[in-house]
Amino acid sequence: MIAVIIPTLDEEEAIKEVINGFPDIYRGFEVEKYVIDGGSCDRTVSIAKGAGAEVLHQKLDGGKGNGVRQCMNEVDADIYVMIDGDGTYSPDEFSKIVDPVIDGEAEQVIGRRSRREEGSIPKLNLVGNKIFNLVTRLTTREKIHDMLSGYRSFSKESLKYTDMTRPGFGIETEMTFTAIENNVPIKEVDIKYAEREGDSKLNPVSDGWRIFTTLIWSIRDMNPLKFFSSVSFFLMLLAVYPSYLTIEQRLRTGEITNIMPALTASVFLILAVQLMIVGLISDQIKNVEKRLRNQI
To answer: Which of 42, 119, 130, 133 has its CA 20 to 30 A from that of 188?
Structure first.
């Protein structure tokens, strides 16, 4: 079975079109549509039921991430497809999203929003997307161009190696990084992206910050030694100038009369050493965790 998971919150304008756009049978698989509703105050739930979808009510507040995780835990399927209920993604491109998984080309597929309608993504969000994706490529060395896409597919097996702990819009970032970390084969396919119907639930500031912090913690968790040693090296660089001032003063006057540069350099160096130790310990814990996971 293929389970199409549609997280919603007040999506009455587009939800029927999204549900009806998916087939009932595809390449021998039954296609079941599940709407996980986060507490809509409009007619989203009644419209979804009328369109033939099974409606699940989100048990935990916190947004999209909690809803998707709940639905995947409650629904048993061979393949899962995630799509937003606002009409931005086209169900007509369903085959592009699931075919690589069915054919064994990948365990997870990300719809790359390469064909965007004008105005479909605000300029501020677009700039943030480009920065986040660039950081992802630099830190993982994987050719991922749209890790924040909400149109994805997953094999059942791949979900064992994909974390979904973030409650809100950070879930796509977490999914991408944990899949890369565990060597899950990922493929990107080009899709179109339309302007949403109804009001946007994405706040570019608060949700952007949530995505940013998820990105930072994901980088930390994937390679703790590299993360902490980089921060440690940066702190050592910060200690260079106050150290120079302290040494120069000692050589010039024979004593240290201004202790502030010395204290500043000492603080930076102590923090640098501590973070390096944290990185080494975290890296050992990560390696043990990987070995245990492989044995299960």
So the answer is: 119
Q: Look at residues 215, 227, 153, 213 and name the one whose alpha carbon lies nearest to residue 184.
A: 153
Two tokens, residue 167? 């409650």
Q: What's the CA gap between 211 and 148, in Å, rounded? A: 9
pTM: 0.80
Q: CA quadruple 165, 170, 176, 177: dihedral positive or negative?
A: negative
**φ, ψ at 154 (rounded to 5°):** -140, 140
What is the number of other CB atoms lying within 10 angstroms of the CB of residue 86? 26
**Confidence class of residue 265 from pLDDT cuts 50, 70 and 90?**
very high
Token pair 């997307």 is found at: 129
Going by C-alpha positions, the residue among 21, 15, 20 that lies closest to residue 37 is: 15
Q: Is the dihedral of CA 92, 97, 102, 103 positive or negative?
A: positive
Band of pLDDT at residue 212, cut at 50, 70 and 90:
confident
CA distance 281 to 284: 5
- Measured N-to-C along each axis, helices 171-181 and 206-222 cross at an angle, to the nearest 10 degrees, of 10
